[in-house]
Specification:
The chain is built from eight helices and ten strands. With 272 residues, it is α/β, with parallel strands linked by helices. It folds into two domains: 136 residues, Rossmann fold (3-Layer(aba) Sandwich); 123 residues, Rossmann fold (3-Layer(aba) Sandwich), CATH 3.40.50.620. Helix 6 links the parallel strand 7 and strand 8. The protein is elongated, with a radius of gyration of 19 Å.
Length: 272
């Protein structure tokens, strides 16, 4: 986590994401890139690294807001850069990950419910579906500055070492306890000892990690994760997102999307 990308529209949830990113950057000695995507239908598509500048009042305000974010970061000893993009509307957040060698995306989300969830969805969700690096989605700042309890939910049927390494890296920033959560589906129950063994096997490659093994029996995966997170007063939910296939459908992008929509907690999404 040496380079963090923070897309922002300066909304309340984007500001919460910025606060989280600043905290992570300071703890990990990382650099932050603040990105704002604006649309000007008179200009061609933007090329990363070559900003288009227009001298209009609205753009001036946006530029000033970005300057303030950079100054706030630098005042706290954090390296920061800004990128103001005024393009055709074809530019996407994912286009700036490889050029800037980003290894963590932190972004805000308003979430969605009811008709809005079914019809318009969320720009944040569209972003996390199409990138390989970990994404931390924030609606509001956690009630504790230090994240003491992190839930990592998975079916643990495949090798989770890549996903777990990202979660463990987060836990080390705050010396957090990682709560592994096995979702035991009621229509395909696995014996408790077997489930605990599956989780323990995944942790063998990690040393000096404070973790617990937990099982919840439910067919509603989102509810099971959210309920457990509430019971232990969790500060963050982490899940491994898999591409849909004939097997291993438990943690497809749909679960990540629903948690982002409905949970008030930050959600860390890592690709399996």
């Amino acid at each position: 986590m040496k380079r963090i990308l923070v897309p922002t529209d300066f909304s309340a949830c984007a500001n919460a994401a910025t606060e989280m990113a600043l905290q992570i950057a300071k703890l990990n000695n990382a650099e932050i890139y603040f990105l704002h995507l604006a649309v000007d239908y008179s200009t061609p598509a933007h090329v990363p690294g070559k900003s288009v500048i227009q001298d209009v009042a609205q753009i001036g305000i946006i530029r000033d807001n970005l300057d303030q974010l950079v100054k706030a970061a630098e005042a706290d000893g954090i390296k920061a850069k800004k990128e103001l993009v005024i393009g055709s509307g074809q530019e996407q957040v994912k286009d700036y990950i490889l050029p800037y060698k980003i290894d963590l995306l932190v972004m805000g989300s308003h979430g969605a419910t009811g008709i809005r969830e079914m019809v318009v969805g969320s720009n944040t969700q569209n972003v996390i579906k199409n990138i390989r690096i970990p994404s931390l989605v924030v609606k509001q700042m956690p009630k504790r500055k230090e994240l003491k309890h992190i839930v990592f939910a998975s079916n643990f049927k495949r090798d989770c070492s890549n996903s777990l390494s990202e979660v463990v890296a987060f836990s080390r920033l705050w010396s957090s306890r990682v709560h592994l959560l096995f979702i035991n589906l009621l229509n395909h129950l696995i014996e408790e000892n077997t489930a605990r063994s599956m989780m323990s096997d995944q942790m063998k490659g990690f040393l000096n990690v404070d973790y617990t093994l937990n099982i919840t029996e439910t067919n509603d995966k989102e509810f099971g994760i959210a309920q457990f997170a509430s019971e232990i007063d969790a500060d963050l939910i982490a899940i491994a997102m898999e591409r849909k296939s004939l097997i291993g459908r438990l943690f497809s992008s749909n679960i990540a999307e629903r948690l982002i929509n409905h949970s008030a907690l930050p959600v860390l999404v890592v690709n399996q």
